[in-house]
Protein: Bifunctional NAD(P)H-hydrate repair enzyme
Organism: Ancrocorticia populi
Amino acid sequence: MLRAYRSDDVRQAEAPLLERGVPLMDRAAAALATEVIRRVRALGNRVPGTEVLGLVGSGNNGGDVLFALARLARRGVSASAILTGTPHAAGYAAASRAGVRFADAGTLRSLAESAEVWIDGLVGIGARGPLREPALEIVRELEEVRVGRPVEPLVIAADLPSGIGADDGTVPGLALRANVTVTMGIAKPGLVLDPGRRYAGEIVQVPLGLEEFLPSEPALLSVGARDIADMWDVPGPDSHKYSRGVVGVMTGSLRYPGAALLSTSAALAGGAGMVRYAGPRETSRLVVSQHPEIVTDMGRVQAWVLGSGVNMDDPEAASEVARRLQESITAGIPVVLDAGAITLLGSIDVPSTVVITPHAGELAELLAARGEPLSREEIAAAPSRAARLAATLTGATVLLKGSVDVACAPDDPLWAQGGAAGWRATAGAGDVLAGLLGSILAQWGDELADLGKGHGIPARLAAAASYIHGRAAAIAYGTGRPIVASEIAGAIPQAIGEALASTGE
Ligand SMILES: NC(=O)C1=CN([C@@H]2O[C@H](COP(=O)(O)OP(=O)(O)OC[C@H]3O[C@@H](n4cnc5c(N)ncnc54)[C@H](OP(=O)(O)O)[C@@H]3O)[C@@H](O)[C@H]2O)[C@@H](O)CC1
Ligand SMILES: Nc1ncnc2c1ncn2[C@@H]1O[C@H](COP(=O)(O)OP(=O)(O)O)[C@@H](O)[C@H]1O
Ligand SMILES: [K+]
């Protein structure tokens, strides 16, 4: 499980260590230099003679880079630095002693054109607001140089790419895109959330011993393979189909029959003991012809999946979905509310056992109905804020889909799951996610009902479903090829099996 903390929490955790004289910056710089050397070698280059350009702001982030440049210079690297102001004094002294060359802004372009590696130490967790001059002009110029180069430089960010919001991943102005981010002590939410994540590249975490001084509640969590065993029900000798959870699925319509098939496929693949389908007669026939194990008579269920592909313009279908939603809330049964059915929450409040699964467009519609309009673009620029707002307004758990899926209930921590490539963005992939989430909620159904409002578990399960969905997509697209949503559903059992068998991550 990845845990990410806000800058204030990181600062507070650093304080007692610094008081004890723990050389945090030295450790951070050593890790940064080691990473540069490792990457240079991985490119097949010799370390001595490699040209490295450090971009050095006036704070401790610049200090990290100055000490790292000093270490690199002692290894024979040809190290230069561009300063934005008065630098970290000890770092400057160390770098000068080691022979790092300090260049003025006028030489930035030529240094950037020839350096194999750029190290970004303009700003770290001390940054406030959009990148300001002179850092802004440096980033602008570097991005111009980058596109003009025959071979792109290797860009390594110290702690975070300069220009991204450490706490929320927003990018209010320009930011310097990195291939690798060497983050100090612990991950920051901005490295996991969109759009900041897109600037961070691969993330390397440097242990600094902060853990015992961090608050018990991180700002953001992310499910990994090893967490799945805690959430997925592995059947034992006493299990039977009902104890394994029954999912009710009311999805699809004559207009969108495929949604019925995709959501039920995923509900089956997710490991519930039984799937009951409650859609129109025509789609029922389709579903059963493809999946003879699906039951169409109604009985008890432990979770409902409502809405994917339902034609909400059809008053009868819409009122049937609304009735199921109300009944489930009364009975304490968790519900996945997907696609057009999300609009039902325009006027009613629900408990957090109702999980809505909007994409940015659907969330925009819901927020507008609730009198807090945000455009799609505004949601994409700050998805965690938008998801939290929707959860607070409706009471529901929100799983906002995108290249990084974000899940939260009104008060509990935020979950974020990224890592799936754009191949996953294919029609029907959301229907698959809804069915899969219904399957895991059904496995927890009675327990969630006993917990009353859910106690944050639906958000955790939504994150787990999102993780498995991303892994299933990755199994399907492999090293990269177009896929369709039914392939994602087909790969769910393998994704769950691999996660259950995993001991790493
Ligand atoms: N504490 C430790 O021992 C450890 C800390 N560590 C490292 O320290 C980093 C935090 O250092 P920090 O607190 O000094 O802040 P930092 O990120 O360098 O930024 C401050 C500078 O940026 C400037 N600035 C601000 N906003 C700006 C903007 N929008 N656009 C442009 N400039 C802006 C601001 O200018 P000012 O506002 O003062 O004019 C000031 O000059 C952390 O990320 C990690 O790398 C690690 O080594 C582990 C041990
Ligand atoms: N750029 C992207 N990279 C990876 N996954 C994405 C990206 N954009 C969207 N997704 C995922 O693709 C799915 C799309 O779902 P959705 O938009 O609801 O499609 P549909 O309604 O056709 O089922 C979601 O699971 C979402 O997480
Ligand atoms: K930085």
The chain is about 40% helix and 15% strand. The chain has a mean pLDDT of 96. Residues 429-450 form the longest helix (22 residues). The chain has two domains: 2-222, 225-501.
